[in-house]
Amino acid sequence: MAIGMQNLILLLVEAIFYFAFMVGLLHLRHRIGIGVFIAALGVMHFLETYLAAVFYVELPFGVISPGSSVLFSGKLVMILLLYVKEDAAIVRAPIYGLLAGNFLTVGLSLILRSHETIGVVPGRIADLAFIDEMGWLMLWGTTLLYLDALAIILLYERLGRVFRTSVLPRFLVASAAVLTFDQIGFYAALHHLNGAPIAVFWGGWLAKMLAALIYSLLTAFYLRFARISAIPVSSRPLGDVFNDLTFRERYEDLLDRSGRDALTGVYDRSRLEFEGPKLLQGSAVAGTAASLMIIDADHFKAVNDLFGHLVGDEVLKRTAGILRDSLRAGDRVYRFGGEEFVILSDGLSHEAALQRAEQIRISVENAITRPDATCVTVSIGVATSTVDGNTLNALLSAADERLYRAKKDGRNRVVGAE
Is this model's pTM higher than 0.70 or not? Predict the structure, then answer.
């Protein structure tokens, strides 16, 4: 039991290390190129298959292979994460590349068998039969991976209709279901080629379910704190799955980039006027509170007059960045006009909105300074549907009146309902 627990802890360390390393490559893809991430996935494929074929450890609940439970499970989650952050066309590249490389491995292995080999290194003989076996296993594993990738993407999409605001259950249910299918398929090959006992199947399945939970938690944590939104759900019928998904994502990306402020990158006022009423209507139907904040940079005209519009633009961009970092999943920030921004939050009470606004005020004051070392500050007016009404105009009017009071009372403060 002690050895089993030690192995379980080591597997957890391996999973965290694998996830952190691969997510680091994915997160830096715009600086170092997506090819680095894809190449790393491909390089790991032989090790995954080798370990899954011959390397087993004992856990408290059975016998498993780290190659299958940690590395392959992690690869499948990485493919889904790549889909979430990019599109289906990018996802095709590593899968097709692995298939092509495995066909090449099998083909070359068959040709290499025709060589008459000689012994050069004492005690070492080339085991081409093993390479051939590994090639077929990798080919079968990659075929399963192709099916797994299609299935996990489609499941993730469909589950979005049930779990609209939470990424964790979407990743967990999709990965658990697909890893179960994969375990059945890969164990069948292991049993056929190596005579693997049934204990390997059950131990591997339990380990993959644990891996699904761990990787889903890590992914949800990463997406939450990296401020990356999940791909919305599509209701279009799917023909060629990859091409269809890619077309939809690029179309939605075009829609997402429209209605954005060119300077700060946040949504503009037209987007607020389009989205705000829908959000408030949904909040009213659900019986939850929705809060709106108007954030105004204090003495902004003086910044432009004293230091020029380039400095003023930089203040606005940095302010917008702080506002983006303060958002919860589902919150939206808009540039309302000039130096004013609006944050619209569903499910946020008035008291919680006041606390969030105070955190924003402090963050701006601590993070942004003018060239003369004076701190940039903001004034914030807060309104909530349960206090001020369920229409966008009602919330804007109430928040604007409170913003005026904050300015009148000395600026650099938050004012809400009395």
Answer: no
